[in-house]
C-alpha cells in the first residue's frame, strides 16, 4: 500500500504524510469532537444502504479472513464487496514486506487479546 502511495504521489515524503494522516484520523476526530460516534453512525448508514439496495459496493469493513494474506479466522478491516448477501468478497491490497510484517504483528495482537479474554464469553 505504501509503495502504491509513493508511486502515485512520486514522493516518499508525501506518501508518508498521507499514511500518517490516514492512520491518525480517528485520533484527530476524537480530539476535536470528543468522540467518533457521528463517523460510526455514517459508516453504519453507508453499509446498510449497500446491503438493502444490493449496491455491490466496495467498502472497508471488518471481515473474517479465509486465507487472505495467509490468515484465517481473524477479522480485519479490508476492502470488501457488500451487497444483499453481505460481505461477498475481500480484496487484498498489495503490501510490501514491511507492511506485511506490521499486519502480522496486528493479527498476533488481536489473537493474543482474544485468547486472554475468550474464557469470559
TrEMBL record:
Residues 9-119 form the Lactate/malate dehydrogenase C-terminal domain. One of its GO terms (biological process) is lactate metabolic process. It comes from Streptomyces subrutilus. GO terms for molecular function: L-lactate dehydrogenase (NAD+) activity. It comes from the Bacteria. SUPFAM superfamilies: LDH C-terminal domain-like (SSF56327). This is Lactate/malate dehydrogenase C-terminal domain-containing protein. Belongs to the LDH/MDH superfamily. LDH family.
Amino acid at each position: 500500500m505504501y509503495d502504491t502511495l509513493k508511486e502515485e504521489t512520486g514522493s516518499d515524503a508525501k506518501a508518508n504524510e498521507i499514511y500518517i494522516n490516514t492512520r491518525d484520523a480517528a485520533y484527530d476526530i476524537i480530539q476535536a469532537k470528543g468522540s467518533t460516534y457521528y463517523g460510526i453512525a455514517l459508516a453504519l448508514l453507508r453499509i446498510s444502504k449497500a446491503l438493502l439496495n444490493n449496491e455491490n459496493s466496495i467498502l472497508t469493513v471488518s471481515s473474517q479472513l479465509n486465507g487472505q494474506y495467509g490468515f484465517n479466522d481473524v477479522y480485519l478491516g479490508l476492502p470488501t464487496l457488500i451487497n444483499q448477501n453481505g460481505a461477498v468478497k475481500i480484496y487484498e491490497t498489495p503490501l510490501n514486506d514491511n507492511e506485511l510484517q506490521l499486519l502480522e504483528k496486528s493479527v498476533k495482537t488481536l489473537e493474543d487479546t482474544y485468547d486472554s479474554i475468550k474464557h469470559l464469553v
